[in-house]
Automatic annotation (TrEMBL):
The gene is livH_7. The lineage of its organism: Bacteria, Pseudomonadati, Pseudomonadota, Alphaproteobacteria, Hyphomicrobiales. PANTHER family: ABC TRANSPORTER PERMEASE PROTEIN, BRANCHED-CHAIN AMINO ACID TRANSPORT SYSTEM PERMEASE PROTEIN LIVH. One of its GO terms (molecular function) is transmembrane transporter activity. It is found in: Cell membrane. Keywords: Amino-acid transport, Cell membrane, Membrane, Transmembrane, Transmembrane helix, Transport. It comes from the Bacteria. Its main location: membrane. GO terms for biological process: amino acid transport. It comes from Roseibium album. This is LIV-I protein H.
Length: 317
């Protein structure tokens, strides 16, 4: 038993390095997409200090809107533009209807509001688009399909799906763009000021309502990109909301306010899930991918609750 746990998996990695590289690639792509989902949570939390429970369903809603418009005869790129506009309208509505009336309310009230928003979007999405899984319009959007096989050694082969490469590139570009937005633009600096202290930001003339609308719109764009990439790899359905909650352990690992933390946390979870499932999964009957991320997060909570890049807050009483 000890051999199966501590030695055999590493022997397999050594004997079949091509398969191990394939596992690492799959873990990398999954981790980048988890990080992209987590970025949506980070954006909202940085601006308001509220965990946006609705981010997962926003991923589904954005994907369903895009596919639904195309199914009704709207050309793909026009459907993409209209979906971006729809996420803007959603952001404005959330700021006006949900956030503005609850300014200065306890965080738990705002969390409950985002839970209510989640179920509203689920009901509205099912009413408009139905509950059946839909196929992402990958080719219509110009995203690559097919795969490339790379020889490794004499008999080894690593297969890279083109859509996975595109997903990784788009995710990296979005992360870089958000980093520049936060650190180099006036709105980004205002957003960081709001995150640090709402009252101080208001006292120097920063519009809290405007910042919240902008950050919800940015989170909507991240949700749209995530919905397209995840939908292209499988399909667009309400089951994607469950995948989106893998961002929870990512946030715990990286820290709720850290963009670099979201990336590192996503990669840890992505690599951990794939390696754990394929090399240790048989020892526990499989299914490690569904729960390993939460075990890793639990361990971090015990020893470093603020995450790898989170700020340690000390309150004196």
């Amino acid at each position: 038993m000890l051999y199966d746990i501590f030695i055999d998996p590493f022997v397999q990695m050594y004997e079949m390095p091509d398969f191990f590289l394939q596992v690492l690639w799959e873990g990398f792509v999954a981790g980048i997409l988890y990080a992209l989902i987590a970025l949506g949570f980070v954006l909202i939390f940085k601006a308001s200090g509220v965990f946006n429970f609705a981010q997962g369903i926003m991923v589904v809603f954005a994907g369903l809107t895009l596919v639904g418009l195309n199914e009704n005869g709207v050309p793909a790129y026009l459907a993409l533009a209209l979906t971006i506009a729809a996420m803007g309208i959603l952001a404005y509505g959330v700021e006006r209807v949900v956030m503005r009336p609850l300014v200065n309310q306890p965080d738990i009230i705002l969390l409950m509001a985002t839970i209510g928003l989640t179920y509203f979007l689920i009901g509205f999405g099912e009413f408009v688009f139905g509950g059946e899984p839909k196929q992402m319009i990958t080719e219509e959007l110009g995203l690559p399909t097919g795969s490339t096989a790379i020889e490794f050694g004499e008999r080894g082969l690593v297969i890279l799906q083109h859509i996975d490469i595109a997903a990784a590139v788009i995710a990296v570009l979005m992360v870089a763009a958000l980093g520049i937005f936060f650190n180099k633009t006036r709105i980004g600096r205002a957003l960081r000021a709001v995150a640090d202290d709402h009252q101080a930001a208001l006292s120097v003339g920063i519009s809290l309502n405007q910042i919240w609308a902008i950050v919800w719109f940015a989170a909507g764009l991240v949700a749209l990109a995530t919905g397209i990439m995840w939908g292209a790899r499988s399909d667009v359905s309400f089951a994607l909301e469950i995948v989106a909650f893998k961002a929870l352990p990512v946030l715990i690992l990286g820290g709720f306010t850290s963009i670099p933390g979201a990336i590192v946390g996503g990669l840890i979870i992505g690599f951990g899930e794939k390696i754990g499932e394929l090399y240790w999964g048989g020892l526990v009957g499989g299914g490690i991918e569904s729960w390993l991320a939460y075990i890793i997060a639990l361990i971090f909570l015990l020893f470093r609750p603020q995450g790898l890049f989170g700020e340690r807050i000390i309150e004196r009483v």
